[in-house]
Amino acid sequence: MKQTFNAPMWIGAKGRIVWKLLPRIARTHVGKLIMQTITRFIIESTTATRVNGHEFVLCAANPRLDFRTRTFATKEPDTLKWIDSFEHDSVLWDIGANVGLYSLYAAKTRGCKVFAFEPSVFCLEFLARNIWLNNLQTQITIVPNPLSDNTQPNLLTLNSREWGESSNSFGTTLNQDGNEIHASFDYKILGTTIDDAVSKLKIPIPQHIKIDVDGIEPMILAGGAQVLKTVTSVSVEVPTYRGANETVAELLKQAGLKISETSGNQVWRRF
Asked: HEC string of the chain?
């Protein structure tokens, strides 16, 4: 297969001209060495930010990661408020952890034991780096497998090869709006259900679950009928395609949970 280099949208017209020149520069030994050194430097770059009185050091290797850092405190304030309500030392499953901002926040501010589910190879390195940069290795466990309604291998389809991007999908090529993903990258990976993650992988039962996976939230919930009966709360970003909201609501009601917040992500609690 011929390797293609598609310029990121954020670099602009002049940047795309430079992008076309880069493969030529990389053909020379010196040019390749310089580019490898610059890449190594960029990957190691970080930015510090403060969220609700807590200091975090985060990877800053590209504009998407910078954006996530800049909007850490403002993008989902309701999610931060939800985490602030946790009992200390709770177990949180962060499903669709991306580069781990909410995993970090829960571990640092509430002392949570976090299981960060993130299968994208373009997020995993930076998830691990962010955990290491904040010295939270003993509190956050990375689970590099997707969750779904069956335990079996399937294709993970990625919308972008940019570090820290989202809008990926497992076992389907549809996004959260029900539209076809224009796949930039895909590979087969072993997925599991919530229930099998507990019974077979021996991951501790969570008190709290956060699900933000851009489309297959109903499938993930369908694979957790037993575990969901025990959780204290669930925060879920509900897809916008037809029937998704009704399916999510039915599955969580069957688990004995009641909706308590609808602004931003839905939060369901056990009262």
From this structure: CCCCCCCCHHHHHHHHHHHHHHHHHHCCHHHHHHHHHHHHHHHHCEEEEEECCEEEEEECCCHHHHHHHHCCCCCCHHHHHHHHCCCCCCEEEEECCCCCHHHHHHHHHHCCEEEEECCCHHHHHHHHHHHHHCCCCCCEEEECCCECCCCEEEEEEECCCCCCCCCCEECCCECCCCCECCCCEEEEEEEECHHHHHHCCCCCCCCEEEECCCCCHHHHHHCCHHHHCCCCEEEECCCCCCCHHHHHHHHHHHCCCEEEECCCCEEEECC
Give the side-chain half-sphere CA count within 13 A for 229.
5
CA–CA distance, 92 with 112 (Å, rounded to integer):
7
Rounded to whole angstroms, how far apart are CA atoms 9 and 156?
23
pLDDT by residue (tens digit) across 45-104? 999 999 999 999 999 999 999 999 999 999 999 999 999 999 999 999 999 999 999 999
Q: What is the pLDDT, as a whole number, of residue 5?
A: 55
Dist CA 227 CA 194 (whole Å): 7
With beta carbons less than 8 A apart as the criterion, state whether 164 and 64 touch. Answer: yes
Residue 4 has pLDDT above 80, yes or no: no
**Percentage above 90 pLDDT, the chain:** 74
pLDDT in tens, 216-239: 999 999 999 999 999 999 999 998
The CATH class of the 75-269 domain is alpha beta
Give this prediction's pTM. 0.90
